């Protein structure tokens, strides 16, 4: 393990947003930046998601739960309207969809890959 703190800093302003594509499915209007990649799981476990106005992510399950924080804008998750500054923890096997009418930026910690239902 490196003891140089610079090896653990992600400069998000220097990273490009990537279209969200999972298992060959492109989710229009949603973009991602990986903050923490877990090589053992071969996936990002901490990410930023940017939703353009009107974008949505389908109904899905979180086998290991999730944590998220709304950094900008607002989103509707399981019929709850979350705004800038709101935090949400969902327990394991919590199912919901996500939609943003006005666009948003969300910080996510997702220990296990989601399952689209």
TrEMBL record:
InterPro entries: ChrR-like_cupin_dom (IPR025979), RmlC-like_jellyroll (IPR014710), RmlC_Cupin_sf (IPR011051)
Superkingdom of origin: Bacteria
Residue ranges of domain ChrR-like cupin in the record: 7-108
Entry-linked Gene3D superfamilies: Jelly Rolls
Protein name, per record: ChrR-like cupin domain-containing protein
């Amino acid at each position: 393990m490196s003891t140089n703190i610079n090896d653990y800093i992600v400069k998000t302003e220097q990273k490009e947003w990537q279209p969200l594509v999972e298992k060959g499915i492109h989710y229009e209007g949603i973009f991602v930046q990986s903050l923490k990649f877990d090589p053992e799981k071969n996936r990002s476990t901490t990410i930023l998601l940017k939703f353009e106005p009107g974008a949505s992510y389908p109904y899905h399950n979180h086998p290991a739960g999730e944590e998220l924080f709304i950094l900008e804008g607002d989103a509707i998750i399981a019929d709850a309207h979350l705004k800038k500054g709101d935090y949400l923890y969902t327990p394991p096997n919590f199912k919901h969809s996500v939609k943003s009418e006005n666009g948003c930026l969300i910080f996510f910690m997702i220990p296990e890959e989601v399952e689209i239902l």
